[in-house]
Specification:
The complex is a heterotrimer of chains A (about 300), B (about 350) and C (about 290). Chain A has about 300 residues and is an all-alpha fold. Chain A is about 75% helix and about 0% strand. Chain A has a single domain, classed as MetI-like (MetI-like fold, Orthogonal Bundle), CATH 1.10.3720.10. Chain A starts with 18 loop residues before the first helix and ends with a helix. Chain B has a domain of about 70 residues. Chain B contains 13 helices and 13 strands. The two termini of chain B are about 40 Å apart. Chain C has a single domain, classed as Orthogonal Bundle (MetI-like fold), CATH 1.10.3720.10. In chain C, helix 9 runs parallel beside helix 10 and helix 10 packs antiparallel against helix 11. The longest helix of chain C is centred in the last third of the chain and has 37 residues. The C terminus of chain C is likely disordered. Classes of the chains: A mainly alpha (about 300), B alpha/beta (about 350), C mainly alpha (about 290). Chains A and C meet through helix 4, helix 5, helix 7, helix 8 and helix 9 of A and helix 5, helix 9 and helix 11 of C.
Chain lengths: ~300, ~350, ~290
């Protein structure tokens, strides 16, 4: 499918390869074979765990990805957890204070945050907190220069410091979406009959939201987690680029320039698998959380 | 009534909508004594449920209870209570039973939990104590194996069971007044009888007053000692149960009774009341029933009737009280003449 | 009263503001060639005028190639807006067709179609587009529109399918069929009006997403290319010296954020117009609109 795009990796403008060399490389990497055969070979290779060789990095794709993926997962994992935490809290906050100025303000803030492209938010935060007010490091995963001289404690702190800005960007970006979704979910639940029953029982207003409504509005949030995964992955890719975080996204965005197809394709494949796993987990979680399904 | 448990005076609840002001409840006055069961009857759209919600102050925007309405309960006007004070009344001194037991219960909590919650909220009972109360209540309402059933979820129970749970929830704090909004409408006929018996039984046991809201005169005959008939946002007839069945005065009440299938009565067809219930945004002028009434005459189109006392304890909002001879000249109601009736 | 007039009346104030902002933006975009003082790719004075901070002559400053940023932003609006609108329209059409097909088909075919949809949904859109565009570089604007449109139709398809399924069950469909009306015609006549409404909302909200997506791609260098620079493309160059020449990223960013926020606000407000249940309720718990039986 991907090979349908015109051109091949070695035809890029500005390539310093001579035509003969190009032809040799093409043959070596199999680009001269018919498309179908290329595709078939690729799938067979993947099944065997062979993801190809990255010519821009001069190492097997699998190796490159193996180091990069955990770093991406770290970033995504922390961001996912925090954005759900923040988002749900915000959503509940808005629902409880429906109609007040505070709710309207939060609503406006979440709309703006959720409308920002991740990269712009990342850029602005980078500008603000790494350049103008240099509190946090401007990129990378750790302070390479001093790495060898740090105690484990300092090293940990250093890691955390480098995590802060990218995570902050991701959390603000996805958290706003989660908050809006949670608010909408609560808005669906609050007019339902059993909330009225609870009110008639004398349940205090705040408990109506945080106990009765929320437990019902949690279920759509689990579905959201599954849906959010590809979204978050996309954002992480860009954020890694901006903050030079050496994960999958960093690899991919660099590979674009050098037309390192095997790497790009493999990364997309891995990304797809991650997302599918995430969805699966979300489905399982939903089944566990809803007593109506659990009972079966 | 001298020392009524609940005395509602001139209750008006209006909804301000795009389509106009809906005067769902428009000047309702009645009282309920201790230990009494009073029925509130009427078709859909007459304002009975809104009355119930108004007493509980569960009306939300765009509706509001109009100033000038008073609801005296246990010596205090419910309208003057703060939100927090009213919250302490709900579920505690006045409780409500709803029409649809399936949607009235929270699907993600066990029934035991939902019953226990009432005790936790009002008595600050510990989780354990509250849970035990829940089991007691389940037993009280006739659910077998209460300790096990308490751990079940609403969707695992039948309609009748769920309604019993709802009743259990209402009675945890032994309220002085229970408002039952169409408690049996969503249930099978056989279950209906069981639920009504349960209500009567509990009433005797605890001395609770019951405001029973329904569209079914038969249900009222079973359980209430006094009946109020509502139409057009007002009470149009009020009488002890025995009187209202033997001697209905208001033509609407007659219509409701005529529409009741009755064993032993030789009826070729059930009589229906022609026309439909008017919209609360536009109650008819004069007597609100006049366009569907077989006895109407000029006066009824212009002059809004007050509640006349027909006999002791029997009231009717109908000019026939003053001109009973008109009853001898029935005619096609106006809605039929104008082609709108059934 | 015409449909538009009725909708406008029911649109909450934020929605009205958003519409105004968007109309203004569209006007600016359309009139860009007339308003902009310079051509967007014109290098004015590579020695004297490059990398100028904003001033009276160049309110948005100039970039490294001495191009006037304001003119670029104005022209960028045309690219960004047209790409986004066209892509979103394409998505709407494809989604509707797919949804109709799935809804009208037999159980087995429907199941297959929906499973495929689910599978497609789990592909991370950005990564996928990166992969494709990396090959297809430089991509013509039409290609960009095509790719963006063909990856964003899933929600619309779901909506349309759901509506198609429910219309199918209605009695009058069977009645009409017995009268000889073709199935497709029935479905179209009844499904489309009902589904138009949520599709419009989804589409409006989708525009914001697509703008952000296109900007991201352009930022990475694989989206819109010169001379059709979109706002995102301007970032690609602007990031090079971010702390020094803040105006390169700030102004396109501002334009972009304003546009996307406006679309999202409008989409949100449209939801309120088209779904009266979102508005106030009669009393808690009752589903009926005020005035109906309680």
């Amino acid at each position: 499918m991907v090979h349908l795009a015109p051109g091949d990796p070695f035809g890029a403008e500005g390539s310093r390869l001579t035509p003969e060399l190009r032809e040799q490389l093409r043959v070596r990497f199999g680009y001269d074979r018919p498309l179908v055969e290329q595709y078939g070979r690729y799938v067979a290779n993947v099944a065997r765990g062979e993801l190809g060789f990255s010519h821009s990095l001069q190492m097997p794709v699998a190796t490159a990805l193996a180091t990069a993926i955990p770093r991406t997962l770290l970033l995504m994992g922390v961001a996912l957890a925090l954005s759900f935490g923040l988002g749900m809290w915000l959503g509940v906050f808005e629902a409880k204070r429906r109609g007040t100025a505070a709710a309207r303000a939060t609503n406006a803030i979440t709309i703006v945050l959720y409308s920002l492209p991740a990269f712009w938010l990342g850029l602005m935060i980078l500008l603000a907190f790494a350049y103008w007010i240099p509190i946090f490091p401007a990129g990378g995963m750790r302070d390479v220069a001093l790495a060898d001289y740090m105690t484990p404690g300092q090293a940990l702190l250093d890691r955390v410091k480098h995590l802060v800005l990218p995570v902050l960007t991701l959390v603000l970006w996805t958290g706003a979406y989660v908050a809006r979704y949670q608010r909408a979910a609560l808005a669906e639940v609050l007019p339902l009959d059993f909330i009225r029953t609870a009110r008639a029982k004398g349940v205090p207003a705040h408990a109506l939201v945080s106990r009765h409504a929320l437990r019902n509005a949690l279920l759509p949030m689990i579905t959201l987690a599954g849906y959010l995964f590809p979204y978050l992955l996309g954002g992480t890719v860009v954020i890694e680029r901006i903050y030079a975080w050496p994960g999958m996204g960093w690899l991919v965005t660099n590979a674009i320039g050098s037309r390192d197809y095997p790497l790009v394709i493999a990364a997309v494949l891995v990304g797809g698998i991650m997302v599918a796993l995430g969805n699966l987990l979300a489905d399982i979680g939903y089944g566990l959380a809803d007593p109506r399904i659990r009972a079966r | 009534m001298a020392n009524a448990l609940l005395a509602v005076e001139n209750l008006r609840t209006h909804f301000y909508t795009e389509a106009g002001v809906a005067r769902a409840v428009d000047g309702v006055t009645f009282s309920i004594g201790a230990g009494e069961t009073v029925g509130l009857v009427g078709e859909s759209g007459c304002g009975k449920s809104v009355t119930a919600f108004s007493i509980m102050r569960l009306i939300a925007s765009p509706g509001r209870i109009e100033p000038g309405s008073r609801m005296l309960f246990e010596g205090k006007d419910l309208m003057t209570l703060s939100d927090e004070e009213m919250r302490r009344v709900r579920g505690n001194r006045i409780a409500m039973i709803f029409q649809e037991p399936m949607t009235a219960l929270n699907p993600v909590f066990t029934v035991g939990d939902q019953i226990a919650e009432v005790a936790r909220v009002h008595e600050r009972a510990s989780k354990k104590a509250a849970w035990n109360r829940a089991i007691e209540m389940l037993e009280l309402v006739g659910i077998p194996a209460p300790a096990e059933r308490a751990k079940e979820y609403p969707h695992q129970m039948s309609g009748g069971m769920r309604q019993r749970v709802v009743i259990a929830m209402a009675l945890v704090m032994k309220p002085a007044l229970v408002i039952a909004d169409e408690p049996t409408t969503a249930l099978d006929v056989t279950i209906q009888a069981q639920i009504l018996d349960l209500l009567k039984d509990l009433q005797t046991r605890f001395g609770t007053s019951i405001l029973l809201i329904t569209h079914d005169m038969g249900v009222v005959a079973e359980t209430a000692s006094r009946v109020m008939v509502m139409y057009g946002g007002e009470i149009v007839e009020e009488a002890p149960v025995s009187r209202i069945f033997a001697n209905p005065h208001h033509p609407y009440t007659e219509g409701l009774l005529g529409a009741m299938p009755r064993v032993g009565r030789d009826q070729a067809r059930l009589q229906t009341i022609p026309g439909t219930v008017p919209a609360p945004t536009a109650w008819p002028t004069g007597c609100r029933f006049h366009d569907r009434c077989p006895y109407s005459w000029e006066r009824t189109a212009h002059e809004h009737p007050p509640l006349y006392e027909i006999e002791a304890g029997h009231f009717s909002r109908c000019h026939l009280a003053q001109e009973p001879q008109r009853r001898a000249q029935p005619h096609e109601p106006l809605v039929v003449q104008q082609g709108a009736g059934a | 009263m015409s449909l538009i007039a009725r909708w406008w009346r029911r649109l909450a104030p934020p929605g009205r503001w958003a519409t105004a902002v968007l109309l203004a933006l569209v006007a600016l975009a359309v009139l860009a060639p007339l308003i902009a003082r310079h051509a967007p790719e014109a290098q004015l004075d590579i020695v004297g005028l490059k990398s100028q901070a904003p001033d009276a002559a160049h309110p948005f400053g100039t970039d490294r190639y001495s191009r006037d940023v304001l003119s670029r932003v104005l022209h960028g609006a045309r690219v960004t807006l047209s790409v986004a609108t066209l892509a979103v329209l394409l998505s709407a059409v494809v989604g509707t067709l797919y949804g109709l097909a799935a809804g009208m088909a037999g159980r087995a075919v429907d199941a297959v179609l929906m499973r495929t949809l689910d599978a497609l949904l789990s592909i991370p859109r950005l990564l996928f587009m990166i992969a494709l565009l990396a090959m297809w570089s430089p991509v013509p604007v039409a290609g960009l529109v095509l790719l963006l449109g063909l990856t964003g139709w899933f929600d619309v398809a779901r909506l349309v399918r759901a509506e198609t399924l429910s219309v199918r069950e209605l009695d009058f469909v069977a009645a009409a069929r017995s009268l000889g009306a073709g199935r497709l015609r029935i479905m179209l006549r009844h499904v489309l009006p009902n589904v138009a409404v949520p599709v419009i909302v989804t589409t409006t909200l989708g525009v914001g997403n697509v703008i952000a997506l296109e900007a991201t791609l352009s930022f990475l260098g694989i989206g819109a290319q010169e001379p059709n620079a979109s706002w995102g493309t301007m970032f690609h160059e602007g990031v090079v010296d971010l702390s020094g020449m803040w105006w390169l990223a700030f102004f396109p960013g501002l334009a972009m954020v304003t546009t996307v926020v406006a679309f999202n606000v409008l989409g949100d407000a449209l939801r309120g117009v088209l779904d009266p249940r979102q508005l106030e309720r009669a009393s808690p718990g009752t589903r009926s609109a005020a005035g109906k039986t309680v």
